[in-house]
Amino acid sequence: MTVTxxxxxxxxxxxxxxxxxxxxxxxxxxGEELRDALLRAADDDEIKVIVLAxxxxxxxxxxxxxxxxxxxxxxxxxxxxxxxxxxxxxVRGLHQVTAYCKKxxxxxxxxxxxxxxxxxxxAADFVLASxxxxxxxxxxxxxxxxxxxxxTMRANRAKAWMLRGGAIDAAAAFxxxxxxxxxxxxxxxxxxxxxxxxxxxxPLDGVTISKMNVGAAFDVVGVGRExxxxxxxxxxxxxxx
Amino acid sequence: MVAExxxxxxxxxxxxxxxxxxxxxxxxxxxxxxVAMCRELRSALSVLEADDDVKVIVIDPAGxxxxxxLDPAEAGSYHDNVxxxxxxxxxxxRARLRAGGDVFWGHQGLYDALLNCAKVTVLAARGRxxxxxxxxxxxxxxxLAEEGSEFGGPRWQHVGVDGDVSMLLATVGRKRANxxxxxxxxxxxxxxxxxxxxxxxxPDGKGTEAALDVARTVSTIMRDGIAAEKFLTLASTEKMGIxxxxxxxxxxxxxxxxxxxxPGEFNFLRARRACxxxxxxxxxEQAKTIxxxxxxxxxxx
Lengths: 241, 301
Hints:
The complex is a heterodimer.
Chain A: E1 4-9, E2 12-16, H1 20-24, H2 28-43, E3 49-53, H3 68-71, H4 82-89, H5 94-99, E4 104-109, E5 112-113, H6 115-123, E6 126-130, E7 134-135, H7 146-153, H8 155-164, E8 168-169, H9 170-175, E9 181-183, H10 185-200, H11 204-221, H12 223-235
Parallel strand pairs in A: 2-3, 3-4, 4-6, 5-7, 6-9
Antiparallel strand pairs in A: 1-2, 7-8
Helix pairs in contact in A: 2-4, 4-12, 7-8
Chain B: E1 9-12, E2 19-24, H1 35-49, E3 56-61, H2 72-75, H3 93-105, H4 110-115, E4 120-125, E5 128-130, H5 132-139, E6 142-146, E7 150-152, H6 156-159, H7 166-172, H8 174-182, E8 187-188, H9 189-195, E9 200-202, H10 207-218, H11 223-239, H12 242-256, H13 268-275, H14 277-286
Parallel strand pairs in B: 2-3, 3-4, 4-6, 5-7, 6-9
Antiparallel strand pairs in B: 1-2, 7-8
Helix pairs in contact in B: 3-12, 7-8, 13-14
């Protein structure tokens, strides 16, 4: 898998994931590659906005909610190597790097998002999705951060999704405040670009202050401690599952 | 009583037993708050909190707007004359911290007083509910919005999000909050209702009446019941870390007044110095019209 970085708009970069299924297989190289690309973009003083694209499997026809979680072929967590899972869910993992990113992260979702893609959408600051998009439960295999889900969708919805599992479609995700905007697929990239331009109008110092402010709020409600807990559980051999 | 003060926030009577009303009265300036008004509102809350006869406080704006925020004429200078600290050409960090705490986020500040008020607070929101108007909406117990209301924090786009975000995240959810914080979105009353920011939406011109109606209902609850419910609510907000959010906000608001603007970024602070507040605001608004109104959109394709 080779994550490509391409300019989207002034001070906005688009990171394209070529193989989203690799993320759900807990492919270490794929996870590392995306995480490192995110960190490089976050450390680039010329970038204020990072767009994650290619997270969903589009296939030949739109996926249905009932089949979405099987499209990406996720590996159940109990079958995955704990060390590999750390690359995704630990304190320096892909989800944590996305949630606490120093720059504003926009997830572009068009198709069937597997659990890891959904977890990345959860961690992103904004999610824009096409009408055909579905989101597998980020709790199924991705060990998503529950406090972050509560902060995003509110407790009752997050709890229901965690316990019930399954995929939700774009309309349900929008209703649950998991998604900011739902558009026809041909309009998606334009809307993402517009949003990136709008966010980039904020001074870089303002972006830094704002993201630190939000990160402090995360810590208060336990988002950081949840990453710590996952790390500790995986270090102990994955007893959390 | 605050009514005799020279500012534009004052207590007024209502004909409903146990219901007091605080009037924000600067309609010709969109009810933009001066620092004095912030202190007056805080004082009014203290006066009413100490009055055992009062169960409910209605906060009501005069004119068409709840508030457009801090008076731009004072936005860059409210930390210049902090008692006990030397007046310097550029305010020190401790002066900025003290001012932000004393006026807004600290234990003597407006928002702390509102969030932790022992009486039930009911807000009549109308027109522009921006910056301070948004925070009043967040921290009142019950907020009723007239249909034509709009909610947002437009200043954030110019300097960053330098206020409390904990309560905003907890109330409207993170993704929605980000629209206000990072994308300069202004929500309609319907969107504010959908997000949980306001309790209800009423027809234009009916906000005060609706707020007083709600206050009348709440005022039938026994005093001890109100005290117990408010105490439990406050205990919950503490457990949610809102108090810690206020501490962070004090720091962030001090830091945001020292930000640097890079080439190509709209320098709000320089524009204000060069051509005055009104022109700076106009230029800033012009620079951020790209995506206005596009968020919160659902296409049925």
